[in-house]
Amino acid sequence: MVTKARQQKFAKHFERYDADSDGKIDQSDIDALINRWCDAFNIAPGSDKWRITIKRANRLWQDLQGHADANGDKVINLEEWISAHEDPRFVDEVAIPLAQLTFELGDTDGDGSISLSEWMTLQSISGVGQVDALKMFQALDHDGDGYISTDEHDAALREFFGSDDLQAAGTQLAGRL
Questions:
Q1: Which candidate, 22, 46, 97, 165, has a CA 20 to 30 Å from the CA of 52?
Q2: How far is 177 from 174, CA to CA, in rounded Å?
Q3: Per-residue confidence at 137, pLDDT binned at 50, 70, 90?
Q4: Crossing angle for the helix pair 27-40 and 116-125, nearest 10 degrees?
Q5: What pLDDT, on the 0 to 100 scale, is given for residue 173?
Q6: Which 3 state secondary structure label does DSSP give 86?
Q7: Alpha carbon of 133 to those of 9, 16, 30, 73, 136: distances in Å?
Q8: What is the pLDDT of residues 162-177, one digit of tens each?
Q9: At residue 155, does pLDDT exceed 70?
Q10: pTM of the prediction?
């Protein structure tokens, strides 16, 4: 059973992937987010990076649907989303790779880290306000170098999905609870 603390985090996280705010996640939500991120980071449609990104996003949608779509209706509702997090395979094979894909899109120069500017762009597209996005960035930038490294991000993801501590740095990935 997913704890109450995790339910809070996962419900807030669900909102970020529900691009049209209709209370469900379907392929159009994933497509809309990916297209917004590609547009924001000047990834040209038809480019190699765009094709790779779309292919990965489509595969992640299939994995998401396979793990979370309990009733087979090709949409994920909040209850299904939260229940899916009970399965460690969902977290490892779907949730974390989806978050890592967004991180990679934000890492425009491919140096394995995201600047504050890149972070703010990613978060604004996901509907996170500037103040919350800044708080997230500060909590995740453990070494205070002005960047979130892949290692810092991956540690935060593990903490987000695995911890009941609502004060933990990784919990900031949900935004304001």
A1: 22
A2: 7
A3: very high
A4: 150
A5: 81
A6: coil
A7: 15, 13, 21, 33, 5
A8: 888 888 888 888 777 6
A9: yes
A10: 0.82
> Could you tell me the pLDDT band of residue 108, with boundaries at 50, 70 and 90?
confident
Q: What is the mean pLDDT of the chain?
A: 90
Residue in this structure with the two tokens 């899109």, named with its chain if needed? 105
Is the distance from CB of 148 to CB of 119 less than 8 angstroms? yes
How far is 102 from 121, CA to CA, in rounded Å? Answer: 11
Which ranges of the chain would DSSP assign to H, the alpha helix? 4-17, 27-40, 48-68, 78-84, 88-90, 96-106, 116-125, 130-140, 150-162
Question: What whole-number distance in Å separates Cα of residue 126 and Cα of residue 66?
Answer: 23
Instruction: Quote the DSSP letter at residue 91.
Output: I
Structural contact between residues 166 and 177, judged by C-beta atoms closer than 8 angstroms: yes
Gyration radius of the chain's alpha carbons: 15
Instruction: Please tell me the total number of residues recorded for the chain in this structure.
Output: 177
For the chain, list the domains and their CATH numbers: 4-174 (1.10.238.10)
H-run or E-run covering 57:
helix 48-68
Q: At 136, which helix (H) or strand (E)? A: helix 130-140
Burial 106-143 (b: 16+ CB within 10 A, else e): bbbeeeebbbeebbbbbbebbebeeeebeebbebbbee
User: Alpha-carbon distance 125 to 7, whole Å?
Assistant: 23
* Pairwise CA distance, residues 99 & 104, whole Å: 9
* pLDDT score at 177: 67
